[in-house]
Structure formats: structure tokens, C-alpha cells
Design brief:
Elements: H1 22-38, H2 44-61, H3 65-71, H4 76-88, E1 93-96, E2 99-102, H5 103-129, H6 132-141, H7 146-175, H8 186-213, H9 230-236, H10 238-252
Antiparallel strand pairs: 1-2
Helix pairs in contact: 1-5, 1-6, 1-10, 2-5, 2-10, 4-5, 6-7
Pfam families: CbiQ
Protein name: Cobalt ABC transporter, permease CbiQ
InterPro entries: ABC/ECF_trnsptr_transmembrane, ECF_CbiQ, ECF_transporter_component
Length: 253
């Protein structure tokens, strides 16, 4: 997998959550999201308890609330979609502050906001406590098809390479006095995009030839064998198990 690769969502730390094997955290987050999605939308109190559980995980992981809330801004488009649902959905209507809103739309908006926010928050906590390289090792440990793991690994690394190439090209343009101010500059930007594509393709070909010359035959060697003890699995699955109890109460009460 190569050397460690830090990303902007990762927050370096030495908490018990950081120390868990990556595949246990992946399994726990996946199970938690499944439980949240399975909860009836009418059990509004259950989603509050889920938020408390995630808050407890954030405290144990020493992830500040501000850090978590800033990363939650990624779901703004889904919030905008949810806000529109009460206005466009059909069915029984109700007046709220002088506006005629759909009852089904209101429930649908609440369902999207509650479950979406909890899912995104759980994913942010996973990313904040697990490096990308560890996530890839965790996916490999969970028996994800090796080809998909390789594609994800290359995509992450080439994403940074292409971003760095774009930065150098922007600096080169600005050093020559270019500044995009309108439609008439789109041609220059289009040529830059074409040059970036060609450079990226050529670099990919060179890297592939270098890998083949070193014995690459379609599979990457496993350098780190990640294992987890029973205690670590128990610790990681505490979150989805507690959420499952809340979900069952939500269906029965």
C-alpha cells in the first residue's frame, strides 16, 4: 500500500478509537448506519439517542465538536433537498406559518435530515480517527475484492498528484500575468485542462510500466497483516449494539 497517507479529514491522535484496527471500525460504522436507516422515522427520540452515542464516541476519540460540525457541511445539498420536500410532495396538507405543507413531505424531510446527518457524522468520525492507508488495509481485511481496493488506492494517490499538478499550472499561468476574469478566458482554462489530462495519462502509463517491470501481475503484496483481538471487536461493536437496542425499542414502544 505504500507509505502512510494523511488526509484533511484525519485528526492525529492517540485515543482508544484511533488505536482500534481499521476493519473493526469499518464494520462498526456500517452496522451503525444500517441500524439508523432501519429505525422508524416516527421514533424521533431514538435519533436523539443515536446523536448522544456518536457524541460519546467523539469524546472518547477526542474529536472537537467544531471539527465535526465543519465537516458536516458536506451534506448541505441534501439539506436543501429535504427543505423542498414539504412543498413539492403530495398528500395531506397542513398549514405551518401560513404555508401549506405536505405531511408526507415533512416526515420525509425529517427522515432524510435525521438519518443522513447521523450517517455523515459517523463517517466523519471514522475518517477523523483512521488514516486512508489504514482504511484500505481494513477493506482488504474485510475481503473486499482486491481489484476494488487497488483502484481506490490508486485513485487516492493520483488525486493528490493531479491536484499538485493543477497547482503548479495555476502558478505558471499567474506568473505570466494570466488571471481568469470572464468567458473570454475559458479557452485558456480548457487548454490547461487538456494538458492536465495528457500529463496525467502519460504519468499513469509510466507508473504502470514501472510496476510491471518490478513484477506486478494484477495484485498488490500484503505488507501489513492487520488483526484484531476479541476485546477490540467488542469495543468497536459497542456503538452498533447500543444503537440496535435503541432501534428495537423504537419499533416496540
Amino acid at each position: 500500500m505504500g507509505a502512510g497517507h494523511a488526509h484533511k479529514l484525519y485528526r492525529h491522535g492517540h485515543s482508544p478509537v484511533h488505536g482500534l484496527p481499521p476493519h473493526t471500525k469499518l464494520a462498526a460504522v456500517f452496522a451503525f448506519v444500517v441500524v439508523v436507516v432501519s429505525t422508524p422515522r416516527e421514533a424521533m427520540w431514538a435519533f436523539g439517542l443515536y446523536a448522544v452515542l456518536l457524541g460519546a464516541v467523539a469524546c472518547v476519540a477526542r474529536v472537537p465538536a467544531g471539527f465535526l460540525l465543519r465537516r458536516l457541511l458536506i451534506e448541505v445539498p441534501f439539506v436543501a433537498f429535504a427543505v423542498l420536500m414539504p412543498f413539492v410532495a403530495e398528500g395531506e396538507r397542513v398549514d405551518v406559518l401560513g404555508m401549506s405543507l405536505s405531511v408526507n413531505g415533512l416526515w420525509g424531510a425529517w427522515n432524510v435530515l435525521a438519518k443522513g446527518t447521523l450517517g455523515v457524522a459517523a463517517s466523519v468520525l471514522l475518517a477523523a480517527t483512521t488514516e486512508l492507508r489504514e482504511l484500505l488495509l481494513g477493506l482488504q481485511r474485510l475481503r473486499l475484492p482486491p481489484l476494488l481496493v487497488q483502484i481506490a488506492s490508486f485513485m487516492i494517490r493520483y488525486g493528490d498528484v493531479i491536484t499538485d499538478e493543477m497547482r503548479r499550472m495555476r502558478i505558471a499561468r499567474e506568473s505570466r500575468g494570466f488571471e481568469a476574469k470572464g468567458v473570454r478566458h475559458w479557452g485558456v482554462l480548457a487548454k490547461s485542462a487538456g494538458a492536465l489530462f495528457i500529463r496525467s495519462y502519460e504519468r499513469g502509463e509510466r507508473v504502470h510500466l514501472a510496476m510491471v517491470s518490478r513484477g506486478y501481475a494484477g495484485s498488490m503484496p500484503v505488507i501489513d497483516e492487520v488483526t484484531a483481538s476479541r476485546a477490540q471487536w467488542t469495543y468497536a461493536l459497542a456503538l452498533p449494539c447500543a444503537a440496535l437496542v435503541v432501534c428495537l425499542l423504537g419499533w416496540t414502544l
